[in-house]
Design a protein that fits this description.
With about 1500 residues, this protein is mainly β. A hairpin with a 4-residue loop joins strand 45 and strand 46 (about 755).
Length: about 1500
């Protein structure tokens, strides 16, 4: 039973019958950070080549234009005619004749917000890489009996749509992003007079919730619009400018004026079309809009179309190009009836627009505009069911347009597709069988990341039905079983429903009024790519009136958000509420008023276009740097910064993440390092670090010693300085070279007030341990969500300019101190080479990469910094045909979660070649070498960047002997290179840089470059895939001859920006996991806690998302004679709805203690006080869990159960959140108090849907008991009938709840057979089913250990088993039967471990994937297996230990992360984080003599996030 006010249920109302074992495996939904290794020499590839081993038969056919629909979901058997059409020339035989029947209940319920929009991150290892020259038709042949292997012969020009779009789960809890951006809001425009009023939509500062709440304004702003009341209002936003347009028609009772208004950066003016004026037409009044507007996607021109009854060609149009209107003209190819209903849709990647018309004769037409002319008119039917039953939308990837419309009185909807050349044959889409009325209204919306479309239909008898187009076919229509409000009273009409896709996730939302609903609320449902339409839910009440009239849904217009604005018209008002991708925000009543019921839809909501401003700083031949502000559209004029000692030859910069501040630093002509600090609006001031010497009226950072940067020697003027901000503290690290000092690498830290060293002393000092020569090239990178900074240095004394060699170094600042300096090579760049070293952080993992070239080799060398140490040097070979050695490199990290932890590398070689490659956090996957050579320069004429909103990459390079700049984009594959021919650029390109707009919703990238004398800039709009050539700016014309005398900084808006690292977790799914206590959106950290030999205090380390903090000392767990008590076995649990954790354990002295965490600290917590839970008598054994704790899922109360030792009966007590709700209670129905029945082993399971608990007990004689807690009292314990036998082992039984049904599962192994048995208990009953053997699961010996872990998204449960021969086994319970039974593969054939063998299992919290880990006998490896939805596949080895003795897996409740703790024979404790790949951490127990001993003396607990 789900709370309908919080989220719709993801469980379909009816399930077809399907066998899950016959399904293709579902591609894992998480962890883009773990993308596999691809063959870099083969160039781009849309399929990974080296991934965990899977059979190709496990994969569905990939069809790039169809989006996620090609993944089999919970669908009934389909005819082959409904399958996506594949290229028959490649492998027609591989198309299966029919999809197998599938039981949806057995499918993983995937979190659609977690689906990446790119290629999956965990794929089989046996899919070969594809070279850039290969066509997709050259793909390897896969098993045709299992899955079609053919791919289309060409790929779309945009983002690959082979996968659904979703946000990955593997985000670290230490929120890493500090990207500043101007947040995006919007406005609701409305009219009850001749003016248009508008109310703003306030912007928030988080990454997922871009907006927050509509502001109800008692005195809203207004726009003078017409001289009549507006009865219809339409509008559109320009995709490339801060511009919007509103158009409408005047009220009935007078001749209706057709009018419009235009906003340029918020300043509104009336539309005045050449030759027509402000009133475009005056028509006979009626109920039809008669005017529409749409923008061309690439040009940004607006196409305005309206009806004028006074003209012979009554359909008129005009074009707005941002400077003026063309003369009004008649649409000559339209010769039909009055265009009463019109709608336009814009092609996503061209200037094509389709206009659809329902005319006064009930004819349906479409007219196509190609950006210059009207090229096609087509009539679909001459008997429409209703003139307004026609809708149009484009598929976002293919660029095909679909038109839907009703015909006659048929209940079906007809549709036709425009492929850019011609219209396909009209085809009917049948309505659900329960629908009898004909289409009255339709709404068709696109998903901007795939070819999916969502259709909503309202019939003449006010029924509403829905359907999803997957890019190739319609899915099964869905009847909402809803009767909408009557929407045609007195001849007026409104659409009482709407549909939309979330822009990022690809989930759909449908909202509709409900005639039987007397609440002031609306009904809604969601569609998930994996499970289809949810059941119907109702929003919270709070609308001012019943929603009897129009309803609109307006999704966020670009990638970067899952928000949708809902506007609802009641009686005389419009209310607004935001769908935030998870649920509904607070309703704002009466955002606009509506004066009378004669007005139709006289309101519209428009999102603001996300535009970020910035500043470019550059130097000419004067000693005063110049700067210009970027408004988001143009540069606003040159200004002067502070005067330097001499002009800059090279400039680097950084912007503060937490305050209004920028710093620039560079080398001047005289060889001095000079820095300036400034705010957002200018006011630059030279930086005077205490101790600097006054030179020529200025305070450069060094006193003397550098060779001058004479023009003739400009090649040697490398930056020798760098600046970066710590991204949590906001302190700035300024680092530079000073030859006059013995330690020539200097630094100082700016805290916003003063310049300090690490010790707090004023001024600067040398970087400790730097032993290199004179630093010539310094690169610096800040770790997201942390204060760590990596500095890369290429040294070289004066002789470097005369043929001497350089050496490369790296050193890490951890926020408090410097680490050791690492020498990377002794064969670095020589005099003919440039310093080829670059450094960047993966945006979410906390790992850094440094790349560098070495003399005489065309290869790139690289190392990875990970949690305290540098990895070994590795080699990346260039694409084939490369002959030059690396001259320059550019390394940029992707900030977007779609290509998590990706880095792009650009290389400019000594032979003027350029090449590129993409790192996917595991390997280099996509090499690319253009055919054109570049220009040899003193600065690199090559640059790379990622778009922030899409994760796509863009690369640019200059062309040798030409003023042309070439560029190419990467979106999983490299697209064809294109030429940018900048306006006014006449000379060779000398140097260039790309600066990505950090706003999560922006795809913008600023390109700044210089030719032989002048500086230019142009802006790349990733949303429209074009350069804004009208924004090309010649920034300076005065003798720019230096190396790279420019930089660009994006602006932080302090009020509307991410000023500190936000929580960027994956939101909980819109269809909630079946628990009333949903995890917070905040990504929780966690804690590892353990005890060590000879120390009585517990130890713990807090996990901070990407690292474990310093080990801390917890409470004393009890004093004994030798003061050396420690846990030998410990268990724990986290509260579902409070910042609280409990840990209980048995000590080496056989006593039981409990610790509770709350309010930031741990403390012993026992019902009667004192040091122990037990009454003083020792328990029989300290190698088992003689105590356990579990939480009631609803109340959040903690249940502690333990073996008293003295009474031999289980005792329990309940913690109520602030105090003990009970004293010590006894399970009195447990058998007599004799030694043989003393409890030795407990397991406990919590029902996520109630306060119920199940307690499992194994006694000293290995008898098995269970007890049920209903939230108030215990029933039992009662023995389980084992047929006169016992368990083989005390640890051989386990219990779990199914997450959605509330049914329970019990597994165990008896001492009479080598098999695993199970029983089930139906929710609401009090008895277990009969003893049953798990089939196809023959063990090598009797059961020693079992464990169960539930999938939070379904009824699946994963089982782990170890038999007496120490062989490991696993299987999946799907809620009805067992599947995927395997023996865990091991070279040794046996597992390590003792009383607690080395095996653990868990489910990821949202993806439906399961993980099994284990250690094998006589091996140091920690192995893994991944269940991907249908089968187990080999995962990567986590790492090595001194042989595993015990291990645990703990699933993060808010993401798909899983923490693994491993104890080894060396008595050390290790941790690995699974987020689709393994991340390791230093040994947790750290120092020598901190031995971790015991069966399981450790536990890891995630924070809840509350």
């Amino acid at each position: 039973s789900l709370d309908p006010s919080s989220a719709p249920s993801s469980i379909p109302s009816a399930f077809p019958s399907i066998d899950p074992s016959s399904l293709p495996s579902l591609i894992p939904s998480r962890a883009p950070s773990s993308l596999p290794s691809l063959d870099p020499s083969s160039g781009p590839s849309s399929l990974p080549s080296a991934l965990p081993s899977m059979e190709p038969s496990l994969f569905p056919s990939l069809y790039p234009s169809s989006g996620p629909s090609c993944l089999p979901s919970a669908l009934p058997s389909l005819e082959p005619s409904l399958l996506p059409s594949l290229d028959p020339s490649s492998d027609p035989s591989s198309l299966p004749s029919a999809l197998p029947s599938v039981e949806p209940s057995s499918l993983p319920s995937l979190n659609p917000t977690s689906f990446p929009s790119r290629l999956p991150s965990v794929l089989p290892s046996n899919i070969p890489s594809i070279g850039p020259s290969e066509s997709p038709s050259a793909l390897p042949s896969l098993d045709p009996s299992a899955s079609p292997s053919s791919l289309p012969s060409s790929f779309p020009s945009r983002i690959p749509s082979v996968m659904p779009s979703f946000v990955p789960s593997s985000l670290p809890s230490a929120a890493p992003t500090t990207f500043a951006f101007t947040a995006v809001g919007g406005s609701l425009y409305w009219s009850d007079s001749a003016k248009i009023g508008y109310n703003d939509f306030a912007a928030n500062t988080t990454e997922y919730v871009v907006g927050n709440l509509l502001i109800k304004d008692s005195s809203p702003s207004d726009i003078q619009f017409a001289t009549q009341k507006i009865v219809w209002l339409n509008g559109a936003n320009c995709p490339i400018r801060n511009e919007a347009m509103l158009v409408g028609i005047g009220s009935a009772g007078n001749p209706g004026q057709v009018v419009g208004a235009l906003s340029n950066r918020g300043v509104w003016s009336k539309i005045n079309v050449t030759g027509v004026g402000e009133v475009l037409a005056t028509n006979t009044p009626g109920k039809w809009p008669h005017i529409v507007v749409a923008y061309e996607s690439t040009s940004g021109n607006a196409l305005l179309v309206w009806y004028d009854q006074s003209k012979s060609l009554k359909l008129r149009y005009s074009i707005w190009d941002s400077s003026g209107w063309t003369a009004a003209a008649g649409l000559s190819i339209y010769t039909f009836g009055v265009p009463n209903w019109m709608q336009m849709a814009s092609h996503p990647d061209s200037n094509e627009i389709v206009l659809v018309v329902g005319d006064s004769n009930d004819d349906a037409h479409a007219v196509v505009w190609n950006g210059s002319n009207w090229i096609d008119v087509h009539t679909f039917t001459t008997s429409m069911s209703r003139q307004n039953s026609i809708s149009v939308a484009y598929e976002a990837q293919s660029g095909h347009a679909m038109v839907v419309y009703g015909v006659g009185t048929a209940s079906s909807v007809s549709y036709t597709i425009w492929d850019g050349t011609s219209w396909a044959v009209q085809t009917p889409l049948s309505s659900p069988g329960s629908i009898s009325g004909f289409p009255y209204w339709t709404s068709l919306k696109q998903h901007i990341r795939s070819d999916r479309l969502v259709l909503g239909v309202q019939t003449n008898n006010t029924k509403i039905w829905l359907c999803i187009w997957n890019g190739a076919a319609w899915e099964v229509p869905f009847d909402t079983i809803t009767t909408a409000y009557q929407t045609d009273p007195g001849g007026l009409f409104e659409r009482n429903f709407d549909v939309a896709f979330e822009s990022d996730s690809g989930e759909a939302l449908a909202v509709f009024g409900h005639n039987g609903n007397t609440l002031k609320a609306v009904d809604y449902c969601t569609w998930l790519p994996t499970s289809g339409w949810s059941s119907i839910s109702t929003t919270a009440t709070g609308f001012k009136n019943l929603p009897r009239s129009a309803i609109t849904l307006d999704p966020f217009p670009t990638p970067g958000s899952n928000e949708i604005m809902l506007s609802v018209e009641g009686t005389g008002n419009v209310d607004g509420v935001l769908w935030n991708g998870i649920g509904w925000n607070t309703i704002t009543q009466e955002v606009s008023k509506k004066a009378d019921s004669t007005l139709m839809r006289n309101w519209i909501f428009l999102w603001d276009i996300p535009i970020t401003s910035g500043t470019v700083v550059y130097a000419d031949d004067s000693d005063e740097p110049k700067y210009q502000g970027w408004t988001g559209e143009v540069f606003n004029g040159e200004k002067k910064a502070a005067k330097n000692q001499k002009r800059y030859y090279w400039i680097q910069s950084a912007e503060a993440p937490t305050r209004n501040e920028k710093i620039i630093v560079g080398i001047t002509k005289e060889g001095y390092i000079q820095a300036q600090i400034g705010g957002q609006g200018g006011g630059w001031t030279p930086i005077n670090v205490p101790g600097s010497e006054l030179v020529s009226g200025q305070f450069p950072l060094l006193s003397s010693g550098f060779r001058h940067c004479d023009d003739a020697l400009a090649v040697i003027c490398w930056p020798r300085s760098a600046v970066a901000y710590e991204l949590v503290s906001g302190d700035a690290m300024l680092i530079w070279a000073d030859k006059s000092k013995s330690n020539m690498l200097r630094y100082s830290i700016w805290n916003g007030v003063a310049w300090k060293t690490k010790s707090g002393a004023s001024g600067s000092e040398g970087v400790p341990g730097y032993f290199g020569g004179e630093p010539q090239w310094i690169q610096i990178a800040s770790r997201p969500g942390h204060d760590e900074i990596v500095v890369a240095i290429a040294d070289g004394d004066d002789n470097v300019y005369a043929g001497g060699s350089t050496v490369d170094y790296v050193v890490v600042w951890d926020g408090d101190d410097w680490g050791d300096v690492l020498e990377l090579d002794r064969t670095g760049s020589n005099a003919l080479e440039q310093p080829s070293i670059s450094v960047a952080y993966e945006s979410y993992s906390g790992r850094a990469m440094v790349v560098y070239g070495v003399s005489g080799s065309t290869n790139i060398r690289y190392r990875i910094w990970n949690a305290g140490g540098w990895g070994t040097e590795q080699t990346l070979a260039p694409p084939s045909g490369t002959t030059g050695i690396p001259y320059w490199t550019d390394l940029k990290a992707n900030r977007n979660v779609y290509n998590l932890n990706y880095i792009i590398l650009g290389v400019h070689t000594s032979n003027n070649e350029v090449w590129f490659n993409v790192w996917n956090s595991t390997s280099w996957i996509s090499g690319y070498k253009p055919t054109t050579s570049t220009y040899k320069t003193d600065g690199s004429s090559m640059a790379v960047a990622f778009e922030s909103n899409s994760g796509d990459a863009i690369v640019v390079w200059g062309v040798s002997g030409s003023a042309v700049i070439k560029y190419a984009t990467w979106n999983g594959v490299w697209m064809t290179a294109n030429a940018l021919n900048p306006v006014g650029n006449k000379k060779l390109v000398r140097g260039m840089q790309l600066y990505a707009d950090p706003a999560p919703s922006s795809g913008g990238v600023m390109l700044v470059w210089q030719d032989e004398k002048e500086l230019y800039a142009d802006f790349w709009d990733g949303n429209t895939m074009q350069w804004l050539q009208k924004s090309v700016n010649k920034l300076d014309t005065t003798n720019i001859v230096t190396d790279q005398p420019f930089t660009f900084m994006w602006t932080m808006d302090e009020e509307n920006a991410i000023a500190v690292a936000p929580n960027i977790s994956t939101p909980p799914p819109s269809s909630s996991p079946s628990t009333s206590a949903q995890p917070s959106i905040a990504l929780p950290d966690g804690t590892a806690i353990w005890t060590v030999k000879d120390i009585t205090n517990a130890k713990y380390r807090d996990f901070k998302g990407t690292y474990f903090d310093t080990a801390l000392t917890g409470p004393n767990i009890g004093i004994n004679a030798d003061n050396k008590r420690r846990w030998l076995y410990v268990q724990g649990a986290t509260s579902p709805n409070a910042d609280e954790k409990f840990v209980v354990g048995v000590t080496d002295e056989k006593r039981i203690t409990a610790m509770k965490y709350s309010s930031g600290s741990w403390a012993l917590t026992h019902p009667t006080g004192g040091n122990f839970l037990d009454s003083g008598a020792d328990v029989s054994s300290n190698v088992f869990n003689n105590a356990i704790v579990g939480y009631e899922s609803q109340s959040g109360r903690a249940m502690l159960v333990w073996n008293d030792g003295k009474s031999k009966k289980p005792k329990y007590s309940i913690w109520g959140g602030s105090s003990w709700a009970t004293g010590i209670m006894e399970l009195s129905s447990y058998p007599a108090t004799i030694d043989s029945v003393e409890p030795l082993w407990f397991d406990i399971a919590s029902d996520p849907n109630s306060n119920a608990l199940i307690l499992l007990i194994v006694d000293k004689s290995k008898a098995l008991y269970t007890a049920f807690w209903n939230g108030n009292v215990w029933t039992g314990p009662a023995p389980i009938n084992l047929g006169g036998n016992t368990l083989q082992s005390e640890t051989g039984a386990a219990v779990a709840f199914e997450s959605t049904s509330g049914d329970a599962l019990l597994v165990y192994g008896r001492n009479d057979a080598s098999n695993v048995r199970y029983r089930t208990r139906t929710n609401g009953t009090s008895t277990w089913s009969t003893d049953t053997v798990i089939p196809s699961f023959t063990l090598g010996n009797k059961v020693e250990r079992t464990m169960l872990r539930s999938d939070p998204t379904s009824n699946r449960v994963v089982l782990g088993v170890v038999d007496g021969a120490k062989r490991g086994w696993t299987a999946i319970w799907n809620g009805a039967s067992w599947t995927s039974q395997i023996e865990l593969p091991s070279v040794q054939g046996q597992l390590t471990g003792n009383a607690y063998p080395s095996i653990a299992v868990a489910f990821e919290s949202f993806s439906g994937k399961a993980l099994a880990v284990y250690g094998e006998k006589d091996s140091t490896l920690v192995l893994s297996q991944i269940w991907n939805g249908s089968t187990w596949v080999k995962g990567k080895n986590a790492g090595t230990v001194a042989k595993t003795t015990s291990m645990t897996l703990t699933s993060n409740p808010s993401t798909n992360e899983i923490m693994m703790l491993v104890q080894d024979e060396g008595k050390d404790l290790f941790a690995w984080l699974w987020d689709g790949t393994w991340s390791s951490f230093p040994v947790l127990n750290g120092a020598v003599n901190n031995d971790v001993e015991g069966t399981l003396p450790f536990v890891y607990l995630w924070d809840t996030g509350y």
